[in-house]
Amino acid sequence: MTEHPRYRTQRATSAGGVVYRDGPDGVEVVLLETRGGVWGLPKGTPDADESMEATALREVREETGLEVAIEEKVGVDEYWFERRSEGVRFHKHVHYWLMRPIGGDLDAHDDEHISVRWFPLGEALRRVTHANTGHTLQTAVTLLEDRPAGHAPAVGTGDQA
Predict the structure, then answer these.
(1) What is the C-alpha separation between 68 and 95, in angstroms, rounded?
(2) What is the per-residue pLDDT for 5?
(3) Do the beta carbons of residue 136 and residue 74 sit within 8 Å?
């Protein structure tokens, strides 16, 4: 049995968004696919002296090609991951905001992801790779459902015929 090397721990912080729109069958959200086949939400690391909100806006624009407006905070995902080659274990916090597109085009996304697409909410919940991403999507749905009448789109799963 081989012994695992001792990793040093580092903190990491990112910011991103749950970008949504009203689709024909309810809410649709943008998901990104990495070269490794992971489906998730747009997010990234802050530049020096950049606020979390500014990071979220910039990263969503770069990764999706969409200009967006922040509506409200969804929450913070927390998880751990390792980079064995560097001997580092990261404790990561990702701040997410609910966002609505105000311009741009998915075809203008950067080359970091191989696919950037709109999905009906139900399909998005099934497609995301990590459970914490699904939890973030569910929290966003709750925020939309809790808005006063006339201030939120119909929150269907998009599974209707």
Answers:
(1) 16
(2) 58
(3) yes
Q: What average pLDDT values come out for the chain (161 residues) when binned by 10 residues? A: 66 95 91 94 95 97 96 93 86 95 91 92 93 93 80 44 31
CB atoms within 10 A of CB 118: 18
Give the SS3 label for residue 134: helix
Dist. CA 151–CA 116, nearest whole Å: 27
d(CA 90, CA 79): 8
CATH class of 8-145: alpha beta
Domain ranges of the chain: 8-145
Cα 87 to the center of its chain, rounded Å: 27
Q: How far is CA 79 from CA 13, 90, 92, 106, 133, in A?
A: 11, 8, 5, 28, 11
pTM of the entire predicted model: 0.84
